[in-house]
Amino acid sequence: MSRTPGEPRERTLGAVPRPRSSRTSAPGRARGRTAGTGRPLLPSLVALAAVAALCLLGLVFLAARFAGTVRAFFGEAALALVLAAATLVLGYWVLRQIRPVREPDTAASLTAAAFGLTAAAGAAVVANGALGSLWAAVLGLDLAGVWGPSLTAPLNEELLKLAGIVLVAVAFPYALRVPVDGFVLGALVGLGFEVTENAVSAMNAVVEAGGVDGAAAVVRSAAVRVALTGLASHWTMSAVAGTAVGLLAASAWRPGARRAAGAAGLVLLAMAMHGLLDSPLPGGAAGTAVKIAVNFLTAAAVYLVVRHTHRRRVRASLAAQGEDLGMRRSDAEALATRRGRRSALRRIARPERPAVQERQGAMLATAEDHAAGSAS
């Protein structure tokens, strides 16, 4: 870049002066107060209290509902819980890593996973039973046995998980501001639900086997539900529905007709994905593979769109900030990725790295504020 006399010299990241602080804290830093007032947000506190109460109720219900099975098959139950915990930990790490720029807020992430794990899963057990009885009365036992799951799950499970995503968005408004936030936090709600469902399915497999070779039944159930259908299960559906919540949150919950229609379409898409996965058609191994591929690729397509949009907006803001600070455009835009920030830090003397990290964080916070504003 050419420089006229009197212009500031182009700077590398290590020489960046401290930018103006952003109004919004970085993801990962809990913040439950309104900007400028310092007072707690009443809707956030109410939503958080509701989440806590619902999670507690769900946990108590699930414990009471399956206590007898656990006592009868304690070893198998312990194995199922170990496998479920491993799935939860791995899935939690992977889904948080897919958020572009930075990981999502930790408190919001844990709350989302906990809601799916307890509140949504517990309520779904009750709702599944009620809807199953309804379909049996309306369709007859034979048809209800075949089509009941594909009719039930999209209605109750997707709406229950969606309610959890909305509560998380209200409880942590700084953590869910754009569609990609909704995708990731929605996926975490779905992950929690999926983990509980996997554990329940594993214990059902033990009971159906009469307790014979129960450990093998648990492992087989987990292998199928994690390694096979897990690629296209609850996390994908809730991620798509969560994107709808992100669209609404980006407009301060006052969407125009076009945005509202887009959000409704995403919710219906998530329900259709669930109906497809539980449908008896197409049947057989090939049919199952098709359903898994359709759901996974649908979620991936939604993710790629919202990821690209968010990164483009963040990079534009970083480039503008960098220009004001005398940075090279490439250095400023590189801060949009974790790898770019690590690479920049490696070029800085070790004693100066903490200060540079702080400057990076301030620039990123401003950039994500800009991205959220652009999404409204």
TrEMBL record:
Residues 1-36, 340-376 are annotated as: Disordered. It holds the Pfam family PrsW-protease. Keywords: Membrane, Transmembrane, Transmembrane helix. The keyword DNA-binding does not apply. Residues 17-36 have a biased composition (Low complexity). The keyword Phosphoprotein does not apply. The chain crosses the membrane at residues 41-67, 73-95, 107-127, 235-253, 260-277, 283-306. Residues 1-12, 367-376 have a biased composition (Basic and acidic residues). One of its GO terms (molecular function) is peptidase activity. PANTHER family: PROTEASE PRSW. This is RsiW-degrading membrane proteinase PrsW (M82 family). It comes from Nocardiopsis algeriensis.
